Amino acid sequence: MTHVEVRLAGEGGQGLILGSVILAEAAAVYDGKNAVQTQSYGPESRGGASKAEVIISDVEIDYPKAQSPDIVLVMSQEAADKYAGDLKPEAVLVVDSTMVSRLPATGARTLRFPITEVARDKMGREIVANIVALGVVCGLTGVVSQEGLTKAVLARVPKGTEQLNAKALEAGFALARENV
Question: Per-residue pLDDT tens for 60-115?
Fold first, then answer.
């Protein structure tokens, strides 16, 4: 895996910008790769489509924005409509089936998971859906090591929520294992 472009898309308030920071840290700090993270969102603090992108590479990164993502996560219908259209045919599209019912036509390998439902029903907190999603993405693609991602999650989440977030991450890894 020399150069991988990852896009995390959803709506404001879902924690996907934090998720992208965690993913970039897992790559750069714990896995020893080059990584760059960018984000884009509307003026709303909650709601409205947002996206964050992470480029992970074994070599120097020349351009900080994803041009043709290899891995895309969509966690809202608006994000799916807006950010899931420009995928490579060999890309992996991870869909939160709790929140997304329609997808644009794409040749990408599309996998659906009840990410928000798992966060709500198994963790008791919908707010950790972003961490469940990171577990799914990492577990499916190996874009970063599970050990590195776990360390990055525990280093970044609010103090006092480490145990909840560790459980959420494991739930995401388990969802991925069921579908590999």
Answer: 998 888 888 999 999 999 999 998 877 888 999 999 999 999 988 888 899 999 99
Q: Give the count of domains, the chain.
A: 1
Q: How far apart are CA 74 and CA 93, in angstroms?
A: 8
Residue 64: give its domain's CATH number. 3.40.920.10
Q: Are strands 34-41 and 92-96 parallel, antiparallel or unpaired?
A: unpaired
How far is Cα 105 from Cα 167, in angstroms, rounded to an integer?
34
State the Cα–Cα distance between residues 147 and 106, nearest whole angstrom.
32
At 177 the three-state DSSP class reads: helix
pTM of the model: 0.94
* Cα–Cα dist 3/55, whole Å: 7
Report d(CA 46, CA 8) in Å as an integer. 16
Q: What is the CA radius of gyration of the chain?
A: 15
SS3 assignment, position 157: coil
